TrEMBL record:
It comes from the Bacteria. This is Aspartate aminotransferase family protein. Belongs to the class-III pyridoxal-phosphate-dependent aminotransferase family. It comes from Teichococcus vastitatis. One of its GO terms (molecular function) is transaminase activity. Its cofactor is pyridoxal 5'-phosphate.
């Protein structure tokens, strides 16, 4: 509460922005996942890895738009691509050469993609991947994992199903190969798909164990169930995503976030035979219409980004930097004897306020949520923006070593200032 009061006092303009929006948006907000109390920061401008808010504070952006912001703010190559498109126009109501170019870049990169469809978000990509599996197999149900997030439409919770999952679901425990194998076997003849994040992203950067993923691959193949990797976030973790890193090829993959150069984007695809139904030359093709599926700004920015900026070499370098940063932050926590650690892989990191191994969302839930919230406010006050509540960070290309040093220093301040709470 004290930290929130401090925050509120320092952000009068953000408060005004929030209050003005209350009359038209429920809670003054339209991004549930990154809302925080008493009101979120209203950002005014971004450049490189720096954000300025409406009150004039400067923050280093370690949230990186939850992985979509890999290029940082106003990357010159992305900007040039968008500007060139501005000169050529938009809303053509037809096709351009660019959709094939972006699709070819994606297929060249991600091992499971022989054919791909473009859409507008990770949520859409997962929804269409799941529906593709249901149509192709003629089966009704989908197995997902408690604590995985697949977008606004498809969140598998251990409790009630969300409002709008219009099909039967089976919910399994993440990284528990034995229990999941039993559930797959028990429901095999009803299961169209198994959908999994190969590392849980926003839910705390919890990597799937390779043996667990191998079991999913083996069991789904045996039963004719479509295995879907939701790589909306994790596709950045190697030149070919986590599927390439593990050498495990799913049947379908969902993508999103940075693949549109930081503009609204999504894609889903896989083996040609599974995607064949979308070929519009057939008598009865599968319907996947969408006015903005080939939005020219997304295409131009996505092609420039994947083709020129987030090259395979850049992906390896960014993830190596992430591993080094995680090691450094964890060393600080250990040295301080604090109940705090950083999980993740490569350029995706998440703080957890607890000791011991974190293999599942249940392990993560044992962390001290209040302490982690305190970390968010304390880091923000020291000029570092991370994901509110969840302690999530996604590195962007323009972050410098100085920026990493600044996060390290801010963490050390936190460890010192909150010693009594962290070292119990
Ligand atoms: N899948 C995963 C793993 C995600 O992290 C997200 C977004 O955070 C989504 C899907 C949904 O993507 P979008 O927000 O573009 O709809």
């Amino acid at each position: 509460e004290e930290a929130q009061a401090l925050y509120a006092a320092a952000h009068p303009q953000s408060r005004r922005v929030h209050e003005a929006a209350l009359s038209s948006l429920p809670g003054g907000n339209t991004r549930t996942g990154i809302f925080f109390d008493p009101f979120p920061v209203a950002w005014a401008r971004g450049e490189g890895a720096t954000l300025w808010d409406e009150d004039g504070h400067r923050r280093i952006d370690f949230l990186g738009e939850a992985t979509a912001g890999i290029y940082g703010h106003s990357h010159p190559v992305i900007r040039a691509a968008i500007e060139a498109q501005l000169d050529r126009g938009w809303n053509f109501g037809g096709h351009t050469a660019m959709e094939g170019e972006l699709a070819a870049l994606l297929c060249a990169r991600f091992p499971s993609l022989e054919r791909v469809r473009l859409c507008n978000s990770g949520s859409e990509a997962n929804t269409f991947a799941v529906q593709t599996a249901r149509v192709v197999t003629g089966r009704p149900a989908v197995l997902g994992f408690a604590g995985c997030y697949h977008g606004g439409f498809l969140t598998f919770t251990a409790r009630d199903n969300p409002l709008n999952v219009p099909f039967e679901t089976v919910v399994a425990p993440y990284n528990d190969a034995e229990a999941t194998r039993r559930l797959i076997d028990a429901h095999a003849d009803r299961l169209a798909a198994v959908i999994v994040e190969p590392m849980i992203g926003g839910g705390g950067c919890i990597p799937a164990e390779r043996d667990f993923l191998l079991m999913l691959r083996e069991r789904t193949a045996q039963h004719g169930i479509v295995l879907i990797f939701d790589e909306v976030m994790t596709s950045r973790l190697s030149p070919g995503g986590l599927q390439a890193r593990h050498g495990i090829t799913p049947d379908l993959t969902a993508l999103g976030k940075y693949i549109g150069g930081g503009l609204t984007a999504g894609a889903f695809g896989g083996r040609a035979e599974l995607m064949q139904g979308f070929d519009p030359r057939q008598a009865v093709p599968l319907q996947h219409s969408g006015t903005y599926n080939n939005n020219v700004f997304t295409l131009a920015a996505g092609i420039a980004g994947l083709g020129q900026v987030y090259t395979p070499e850049a992906a390896l370098a960014l993830n190596a930097r992430g591993d080094a940063l995680r090691g450094r932050l964890n060393a600080r926590c250990r040295e301080a004897g604090a109940a705090l650690q950083v999980t993740g892989l490569g350029s995706m990191l998440a703080f957890h306020a607890r000791r011991g191994e974190i293999r599942s969302p249940a392990d993560a839930a044992e962390g001290d949520a209040t302490l982690r919230a305190l970390l968010f406010y304390d880091l923000l006050e020291r000029g570092i923006y991370t994901m509110p509540k969840r302690g999530f960070m996604a590195l962007s290309l323009p972050l410098t070593e100085d920026d990493h040093d600044a996060l390290d220093a801010a963490l050390q301040d936190f460890l010192q200032a909150r010693r009594s709470l962290l070292c119990r």
